[in-house]
Write a structure and sequence with these properties.
The protein is an alpha/beta fold.
């Protein structure tokens, strides 16, 4: 089957050809015809299988088919929601790439950067808006977007949006959309929670899954190296140097750990950078650009930061630390072996992580080969210790979510109107309590506020 046989217009076929593609992937073969008919869709595919083009191409086709040039501001007719900034930027790049020969306008909005330039683009009018939920709600509160004319809604990486607690934000957005619209829900995996969400959003959807849930890409070679925790960095430097790896994506559980590892590797003579939620948008963009261009050899990332990274022909992924949630292993190694290319994923596993490794192998239903490296055999006398899951653990995200105080979820200086007054009121109330001698209550209130901030800090990245 060719792209021509899918019924796409000439302008889209030209853009696809310019990208060097001639044959659609399995998810594209199945999804494009369904979407072009106007039917709701649940689409599941492994990362790197062409999922983004699978909804972008028919979305552009449908908008052109109903395009009615008129005077005045363009109404937003298609909305794509993504969980992270990098994924939002990636999707928008696809919209621009495949729509380059069409008269449609698009823009992307996410947090971490000034809202004013985004407002100016929205005021001029766009046909397609790609957004993260938090920043979209900011624009809604400032009356810079009107969602009443939406014809197509896309929820991309829906599983991650639920994991990050975006369900309440999504519901707020849905309340502003027309009842009659086409809804497309795409996800790398489908959990029972995702299917429950789909039941409330979709009308008689087509279900397309081109791979079983929680399966790893066939073209990715997996291996485990057992090593003592304190020698992981030494082994990683040895592997990169002895094998002359030029492009390696390394996963770490925490932001602080990512910073420390990138600094240590750089001190070892291996140019590295870290990417995570505490980095500014500009710093993340520069780090990713340097990694793609070969200026740095290693990019150290946290799970949330890496979701949506699209790096062509990435050869190596390393789990410096195994993820706390087994499903994240599938997403991590899905960064390599994309679009038919070969890839290698290795995990450096210490005694503390043996249970995590068993959980992963149980999930993917296979034993990952174990290879010992001479000189790095683990010390059998070392006992396992509890793993520090950090502040961004999955359970903490669920308990804190985005349904709590949104001021705790955004970077400093980005609080909404009213939040500052509420904070001042809380401060005055605490002072009054102290004057009245109720120090115990004031201490408890402060502790609870700190807990809420810790639980929600992981969401700053996505907003």
């Amino acid at each position: 089957m060719s792209f021509e046989s899918l019924g796409l217009r000439a302008e889209l076929l030209r853009a696809v050809s310019e990208k060097g593609y001639s044959e659609p992937t399995p998810i594209q073969k199945q999804a494009i015809p369904v979407i072009m008919k106007g039917q709701d869709l649940m689409g599941g595919a492994q990362t790197g299988t062409g999922k983004t083009a699978g909804f972008t191409l028919p979305l552009l086709e449908r908008l052109m088919a109903s395009n009615k040039p008129g005077k005045g501001r363009r109404p937003i007719r298609a909305l794509v929601l993504t969980p992270t900034r990098e994924l939002a930027a990636q999707v928008h790049d696809s919209v621009q790439t495949y729509g380059r020969h069409l008269p449609l306008k698009s823009t992307v909005v996410f947090g971490g950067v000034s809202i004013n330039p985004q407002k100016m683009k929205l005021i001029k009018g766009v046909d397609i808006l790609v957004a993260t939920p938090g920043r979209l709600l900011d624009h809604i509160s400032q009356n810079s977007v009107n969602l009443s004319k939406i014809d197509i809604l896309v929820l991309d990486e829906a599983d991650r949006m639920l994991d990050m607690g975006f369900i309440h934000d999504i519901r707020k957005v849905l309340a502003l959309l027309p009842k009659e619209k086409q809804t497309l829900l795409f996800s790398a995996t489908f959990s029972s929670d995702i299917k429950k969400l789909a039941n409330t959003l979709l009308k008689k959807p087509a279900l397309i899954e081109v791979a079983q849930q929680n399966t790893t890409a066939e073209r990715v070679t997996q291996v485990v190296h057992h090593v003592d925790k304190k020698r992981k960095r030494e082994l990683l430097s040895f592997l990169i140097g002895s094998n002359n790896w030029e492009q390696v994506l390394v996963f770490n559980r925490t932001k602080h750990g990512a910073n420390r590892l990138a600094e240590q590797l750089t001190n070892d003579g291996i140019a590295s950078a870290a990417i995570h939620g505490n980095k500014s948008q500009g710093a993340r963009t520069r780090a990713l650009a340097d990694f793609k261009s070969g200026k740095i050899r290693v990019l150290v990332a946290t799970d949330i930061a890496a979701r949506g990274l699209d790096i062509n022909q990435l050869p190596h992924v390393v789990n410096f630390e195994l993820p706390n949630v087994a499903e994240d292993y599938v997403h991590r190694i899905g960064r390599t072996g994309r679009a038919g290319n070969e890839g290698e994923a290795m995990s450096l596993v210490c005694v503390d992580e043996l249970k995590l490794l068993k959980d992963i192998e149980r999930l993917i239903k296979q034993d990952i080969p174990k290879v010992e490296i001479d000189g790095y055999k683990p010390d059998p006398s070392i006992k396992a210790e509890p793993i520090n899951k950090g502040r961004g653990g999955r359970q903490q995200q669920k308990s804190g979510g985005r349904s709590g105080n949104r001021s705790n979820q955004r970077p400093a200086g980005k609080k909404r109107a009213g939040t500052k007054r509420a904070s001042l009121s809380n401060s005055q109330s605490a002072n009054n309590n102290q004057r009245s001698g109720n120090k115990k209550r004031g201490s408890s209130q402060s502790t609870n506020q700190n807990r809420n901030k810790s639980a929600n800090r992981a969401q700053q990245y996505a907003h």
